[in-house]
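Issue: ligand-bound run for glutamine - logging full I/O for the record.

Environment: standard queue, default settings, no custom constraints.

Inputs:
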Amino acid sequence: MGADVPELLPSGGAAADLNPRPVTPARVDGRPRVVVLDYGFGNVRSAVRALERVGADVELTADREAASQAHGLVVPGVGAFAACMEGLRAVRGDQVVDRRLAGGRPVLGICVGMQVMFDAGVEHGVRADGLGEWRGVVEHLDAPVVPHMGWSTVEPAEGSTLFRGVEDERFYFVHSYGAQTFTQGHDEDADPRYTPPRVTWAEHGPDGAAVRFVAAVEDGPLSATQFHPEKSGDAGATLLENWVRSL
Ligand SMILES: NC(=O)CC[C@H](N)C(=O)O
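Outputs:
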């Protein structure tokens, strides 16, 4: 470099100050740190207890750096789609999820925490934008009896790691809305590097009038379940353990 050209980034301190390296927390007794995002919506206490029981070192917080740097982030969600999105944005959870996924850092969405990963949700005629990680709109389940409240089996995706060992079990659902289509983000024929998401489906309603909806998705670092694994007994615990072990 010519003598008259100032050093833009003097070696050492200044460069380090510009982009402080994320500091992933140390594993405590080998346990991965999982942050349950505390943004005012979700069965957070039961999620914390369920994750601790399957070996995670859990922190319940809305702190952006803690949520960004943990080995895993859980986005719970209970209530209205629009309200959950408002709560998420209020703690910049939308940016945290985007940054984590861009860096391949695992995120698990639960119930409305899964629904908000889609483009939008429509509830009581109100359309609200979601995080847009997946194409599609979460809409009312057009079934004779709604909400879908109870234990249902699912149709696990081929090659699912989330449902390993609990493929034929029942999981606990409480919802009136759901994603009823799933559109691949890419054409895997055009891009051999692309691994299509593993979509698990479920149905609600009587034969002949049942509505089919997305029960879970495994899409690289982003996983999500419409049901509540933290309220799904041993099967839910095994599913959470499968996710925690992947961290
Ligand atoms: N358990 C929930 O809070 C689900 C709420 C969501 N609005 C739904 O009905 O699908």
